[in-house]
Amino acid sequence: MVDIIQLLPDNIANQIAAGEVIQRPASAVKELLENAVDAGATEIQLLVNDAGKALIQVIDNGKGMSVTDARMAFERHATSKISNIDDLFKIKTMGFRGEALASIAAVAQIELKTKRDEDEAGIYIEIENSIVKKQEPIATKTGTSIAMKNLFFNVPARRNFLKSNAVELRHIVDEFIRVAMAFPEIFFSLNSNGQQVFHLEKGTLKQRIVQILGNNYNAKLVSLQERTDYLDIIGFVGKPEIAKKTRGDQFLFVNSRFIKSAYLNHAIMRAFENMIPKDSFPMYALFIDLNPAQVDINVHPTKQEIKFEDEQIVYAFVQSAVKHALAQHSITPTLDFELDATIQNLDAVNKPITDLDRSSASTSTLFQTFSQKNQAHFVEKNSELKHWKDFYEKPNEQSDNNNFATATQTPVFESLLQNIEQPTEFNNPLQIHNAYIVVQNNNGYLLLNQQNAHERVLYEKFAIAVAGKAIATQQSLFPTTLELSPADTHILHELLPDLKQLGYLLEPFGNNTFVLQGTPADVGQKGDLQAIEKIVEQYKHFSNDLKFTKREKLLRTLCLQQAIKPGTVLALTEMKTLIEELFLCETPNATPNGKPTYMSFKKNELDKIFGR
Ligand code: ADP
Ligand code: MG
Question: Looking at the whole model, is its pTM more than 0.85?
Answer without folding.
Answer: no
